[in-house]
Amino acid sequence: MSSPSKSSVQEAEGFLDFVDASPTPFHAVRSAKAILDEAGFKQIKERDAWSSSLVPGGKYYLTRNASSIVAFAIGSKWKAGNPIAMIGAHTDSPCLRIKPVSKKESDGFIQVGVETYGGGLWHTWFDRDLSIAGRVIVKSKEGNYEQKLVKIDRPILRIPTLAIHLDRQENFQFNKETQLFPIAGLVAAELNRRGSTDLADKLDEAKLGEDFSPLQTPSQRHHPYIVEIVAKEAGCSPSDILDFELVLYDTQKAAIGGLNDELIFSARLDNLMMSYCTTRALVSSLSDKDALKNDQTIRLIACFDHEEIGSRTAQGADSNLLPAVIRRLSVLNPASPSDSDASEDGTSTAYEQTLATSFLISADMAHSVHPNYAGKYESHHRPEMNKGVVIKINANARYATNAPGIVLLQEVAKRAHKVGTPACAQADESGVPLQLFVVRNDSSCGSTIGPMLSAKLGARTLDLGNAQLSMHSIRETGGVWDVVHAVSLFESFFKHYDGLEKMILVD
């Protein structure tokens, strides 16, 4: 394998910027919005009527809870009941979340109480330079309650391991409730900073004169200096903070590595790589000003929060978010009334017709073969990084892939062009490679948003993702070329689904 091309490196570097700016789902949605805004997408709201504001040829996005985002472009030839080409991903990753009451002290150390989110490899969080990010709810000057995103860019927390001299464990083990609390500093140093010999007295003084609060204030439930740092980042006073949702993240930036710059070392590859690739592909598919001119479909992406904990929340994939959006889009009127051939009865079943002709790609990272644990992989299903997007299959429907979907994706892959390659390029410059993956019969299998959405919608669905190592670690490894592979594949899906949908004759 040669070194990555210039376009591959540029696309990978775009992802590095995206993931570094996105330590939480809130930040990931903000990063996606920035890409969409630059491409001319218009933000809309679920609470508003769409029938008069959405038009064929338009580009739009909406958010829910500021942690999930749906974006779509409507073909100029759209009619009620037509297909929607969809790609779904998720914005969350396993992490440590600060508890509602996090203030802890022990043996002279200031500590922060945290709660595990998702199925992380928690031992990888030890001895890392950690900081805080998330959203803060503040009271504005007008008396409203607003959300502000914060990301502390300097390391302030660390979970130290116990010296091997004190516990010679062959296998590293720890208690998640008592031995996973990070240290944030020394009590003596904090007392010295405040100019007091008794921190408890200082906190008691702070309570005097405060208005009644049903709950303790954030400065009472958390270490006051942490609240001060968060408030400074949010651009407000500590007393303006009413509550927050904050998590820990690794301050080490993502990087391109490997002897030939072929690898990506980063946090949150699962699943921000797929979130980035879907967003970039939607925008790239519209780069031609006439991209939607003859398109009869809608091109849609949906990046959901809470996949790592089961998706059963208002902003998760198992909510009404995507069905509600599709229902509203399915009955949109065409640009010209003369273009519509739908009867009143046809309009009433437009939602069902749209679902029957639509297709969903569930994009979530896949497992690369691990050279040190090769026996964990089925002998004929050993995906490799930089060898193409991985189609994920499971006989017990942990993934939603089936044969018609594989046929469709192969046709999409054949028609794909590498990013930066003109459409008139030679055959050897086009096409995206694909790989197949199933787990061993004696191994457990993960799952994705694919099965739940395919069951909820009844739409044809396929699961795929880029290959990576160290999934759910604080620091994961992926392939540089695979970023451009996924973007190219998804772009081709959006461009060609209108024609390909009619070729897959399965009812």
From TrEMBL:
GO terms for molecular function: metalloaminopeptidase activity; zinc ion binding. Belongs to the peptidase M18 family. Keywords: Aminopeptidase, Hydrolase, Metal-binding, Metalloprotease, Protease, Zinc. This is aspartyl aminopeptidase. One of its GO terms (biological process) is proteolysis. The keyword Protease applies. Pfam families: Peptidase_M18. Its cofactor is Zn(2+). InterPro entries: Peptidase_M18 (IPR001948), Peptidase_M18_dom2 (IPR023358). Its EC number is 3.4.11.21. GO terms for cellular component: fungal-type vacuole. It comes from the Eukaryota. CDD domains: M18_DAP (cd05658). It catalyses: Release of an N-terminal aspartate or glutamate from a peptide, with a preference for aspartate.
